[in-house]
Amino acid sequence: MANTAQARKRARQSESRRLHRKTLRTRVRSAIKDTLIAIEGGDKAKAEAAFRIATPLIDSSVNKGILPKNKAARHKSQLNRRLHALQ
After folding, report:
1. Angle in degrees, CA 70, 68, 77, rounded to 5
2. Domain containing 19 — which CATH number?
3. pLDDT tens digit at each of 87 positions of the chain
4. Domain span holding position 26
5. How many domains does the chain divide into?
């Protein structure tokens, strides 16, 4: 347990930041999942729309430190590859 005022503040900050990052990470994962569901459903227009929503979310998660840049690039590449295979 935090014994000093500084340690208590750092504990509060880390908890609030953890919760904030959790919501961002959930938003990115949901966007990826929505895209995959649309692709598996076979609806090309819906899949493209979901991909257009997911791509900026993935990019912004890199800038915020939620995802490493290579993981984000891999997600976008795999989604794009599956989207083009739908044709």
Report:
1. 35
2. 1.20.58.110
3. 778 999 999 999 999 999 999 999 999 999 999 999 999 999 899 999 999 999 999 999 999 999 999 999 999 999 999 999 987
4. 5-85
5. 1
